Amino acid sequence: MPERLNIAVFVDYDNIEIGVKSTLRREFDVSLALDALKERGDVVAKFAYANWGRQEGATRQMAENAVQMVQRLPSPRGDKNGADINLALDALEMAFTHNHVNAFAIISGDSDFIPLVNKLKEYGKTVYVVGGKAFTSTILQQNCHEFVSYESLLDDPARAGKLPPPQAAQVESTAPSLRSDGPRNDRPQQQQSQNLPRERRNRPAPLDLGQAMPLVERALQVLERREVQPQLGLLKSTMLQLDPTFSEKAYGAGSFSEFVDKLKKLELVTVAGSEGRYTIQRKSSVVVSDRAAQKPDLALPLLRDVLETHRFELETESSVALDDLAAWMTEEQPKFDFKDYGFQEFSEFLNFAQDKTVVRLELDEEKGLKVSLGAEFYPPAPPPAPPEPEFPEEEDEKQPIVIGQPSRVAPTPEPEPEAKPKRPRAPRAPRRKTSPHESPASRPPRKTTSRTTTTRSRKPPQGNA
């Protein structure tokens, strides 16, 4: 018996709410996600993170589904990733302290949760991610154990009987046929679904069943190498192990048994055994190479050409609506069909291109998805070239001059010894001329020099004895 899963659910409400509004024009319904998780195990804990003071309309549905609302008050700086950090810390704490919880479900499309998903997988936990294909990071979709798309949880109007019979017949007739030899002509329906930016969108049109055959055959080959009988449950788990984004609902089937039944009716696989113990075998004679989905990377050059053509408009207006870009692709690349590359909607293809840095998507609750040029069109400036090393100039050595031998350099005459400069003499003061009528007392006193003079004592005159 497989291990029983006890699932703890963590909802990043701000992210999932704006993503559903921008891409599907709907209000996020947490009950749809919880019902899908209950099919996979027991939901034992439910937490939702948001600033509930601004989400008064959502508190009622959270209370009706017994979801514990964790209040997050943003800081004055507007910490954008505050809910992500709180959610990651609480999830890791539960992984350490609650041993009976062996599965975690993260309802968000934010790529910031990739480290959390990897860490939970390191501790042996099963990780589910619930989000929209149009806004959930493709890296996050590929790294969890199973990705549950929110689009697949919506009501299918053709299956539920909500459309009038003529419209339901029209939808059924325009669905791509697997056996048709001519090219599919479902582009009008695609344009009609993309031209509803302000209306509620239901589940997108299903993909061609032939596009799932490469994954089915690969899973059957893996089970054959393991020498295990490919039963229904084992086949699906192997397909999810190879591609976590697989969902039978994307191909118009309500369950995996219905999906296999469709493959059987189209004679793509062989089903043997009684009810409840069906075994599936592949048919080697079936060729599905023309029906298989092409690699999504092959569609990126077509998108790059269109973006480069309209680069001036994109840079002038900074972004364009998704419908405008879809119209440019239809006009300039008439053979392009996103379904040929495994996408149900054009927005899913742009979400894939965003992870390849070709475009950048902005979620807007009122205007829908806004598309701008990605980082690929604005490469970083190359680093400055390192300065060239400066080598000292080599000086030619002075060659000796030999008398009588030719020389390139004329002999430099030896400089004559410089004459010792004479010390200048201080000019003498002019001698003052005295007038014969001038008395000695009226003469100005004579200036004395700093030299010490020796005064001689005069002997008084001797009188006559």
Under CATH, the topology of the domain at 1-154 can be stated as Rossmann fold
Tell me the major beta sheet: 6 strands, parallel
Please give the radius of gyration in angstroms.
Answer: 46 Å
**Spatial separation of the terminal alpha carbons:** 165 Å
Number of helices: 16
Number of E strands:
11
Gross morphology is: elongated
**What is the helix/strand order?**
EHHEHEHEHEHEHHHHHHEEHHEHHEE
CATH architecture of the domain at 1-154: 3-Layer(aba) Sandwich
Layout of helices and strands:
Layout: E1 6-12, H1 13-24, H2 30-38, E2 42-50, H3 56-64, E3 68-71, H4 82-97, E4 103-107, H5 114-122, E5 126-131, H6 138-143, E6 146-149, H7 157-160, H8 165-174, H9 187-194, H10 213-225, H11 232-242, H12 256-265, E7 269-272, E8 279-282, H13 300-309, H14 311-317, E9 320-321, H15 322-332, H16 346-355, E10 359-364, E11 368-373
Parallel strand pairs: 1-2, 1-4, 2-3, 4-5, 5-6
Antiparallel strand pairs: 7-8, 9-11, 10-11
